[in-house]
Amino acid sequence: MGLGDAFIHFLEKIGERTIEVSETTILHRIPERATIQERLQLLKQMQEEIEKEKESKKEEELDQILEWRTEVEVREPMMKRLAEALSQQMRGPIEYLAHSIKGLDYDLYRANIKTAPNVYVAQMIIVAIVMGIFSGIFMFLMMFPPDLSVMVGFLGFIAGFLYMRNYPKIVFRSRLSECEKALPYVLRHLASLLSAGVGIAEAMISVANADYGPISEEFELIIKDMRSGASLEDALERFERKMGSENISRVVKQILRAVKFGGNLADILYKLAEDFSFEYRMRLLDYVQKINGFAFIYMFLSVVMPTMFLVAILAASAMSQRLVLPPQGMAVLLLFGFPSLSLLMVVMIKRREPR
User: What is the three-state SS of 229-245?
Assistant: First the structure.
């Protein structure tokens, strides 16, 4: 017997053994002395049981799929679901508007907002409509004329649309500020791992897995770029262009220079971390000195000025024996005018905060 015949005989033995095992598992419930009719009846019952088990498994799978879809729908914000529905119903105009808004996709990418441009445009429209409706209703409830209420509602629509257009830029500036604040800690983290003999890629993975806020997310994107086939140099340069920060550009250039030409990268990163920390402390000291004057102006706008305005209006009304300013105008100034000035002051103070 040749080697091929022996192998075929071995496979036949395995097949016979498998058939015997399957037959014993199926027919172990059939008595040995049962008649043919009894055997057929038992086999029919077994077939019905198998079909019921299959149906129950299918029902369980369908229930699991429905539960998963319900969980996904609950997790997604209502705004996103409404925007997706609106983008599907008005697909043509929304896609045209998304293409006509220049730089929207790039702003979403820099802000790390994982939303398609057309869906985001639908969100812009929804927010603008809501703000317009609420503005008009508020002015109408304040007993203003209908034409003025409609005009204020239209202005609210425009304000909501412009706010949503600039929202990705606001998010990006906030992320950039958080990245620059955490940069000294990240550099020390990298330097300590490099001093221990860990490679630059492994050290960057450690930073991505750490909790440094947005900069950990950016390092995770760098690692994803490298895993998708990009080199370390390309991934870091893409990160540098995305952030557009002078400090981050210095760090990227130093890392690439050390990797390309050699050098003690750990010492370089330690030195950069100390430089950034010293610069931040100096800017913070200058900010604290300037904030004292802003605090006095803020107290005047938020407390003293509304009181003086109210006293002046009451005195002028008493002297002329009539209201100098309608109650609606006083309500708008006291509820929106002076708080808006205070909010503007807070924004100015916040924008001067060192990064």
Answer: CCCHHHHHHHHHHHHCC
Under the banding of pLDDT at 50, 70 and 90, the label for residue 183 is very high
In terms of phi and psi (left: phi > 0; alpha: psi -120 to 50; beta: otherwise), the region of 92 is alpha
Q: Report the SS3 class of residue 264.
A: coil
Report CA 73 to chain centroid distance, whole Å: 17
> Given a cut of 60, is residue 153 above it in pLDDT?
yes
Q: At what angle do helices 265-299 and 246-261 cross, to 10 degrees?
A: 180
Percent of the chain with pLDDT over 90: 30
Tokens 């037959």 locate to 23
Tokens of 289: 């000195």
> Do the beta carbons of residue 120 and residue 105 sit within 8 Å?
no
158: confidence class by pLDDT, cuts 50, 70, 90: very high
Asked if 128 contacts 160 with a C-beta cutoff of 8 angstroms, the reply is: yes
Tokens of 226: 């490298």
pLDDT class for 154, splitting at 50, 70, 90? very high
Task: Give the model's pLDDT for residue 47.
Answer: 73
The values of phi and psi at residue 30, to 5°, are -90, 125
Do the Cβ atoms of 297 and 345 come closer than 8 Å? Answer: yes
Report the length, in residues, of the chain.
355
Cα–Cα distance, 284 to 353 (Å, whole number): 8
- 236: which residues sit within 8 A by CB, 6+ positions away? 222, 252, 255, 256
Mean pLDDT value of segment 328-335: 74
- Report the candidate in 195, 245, 240 with the shortest Cα–Cα distance to residue 218: 240
pTM for the model:
0.66
Using alpha carbons, list the distances in angstroms from residue 42 to 34, 45, 50, 204, 226. Answer: 10, 5, 12, 66, 62
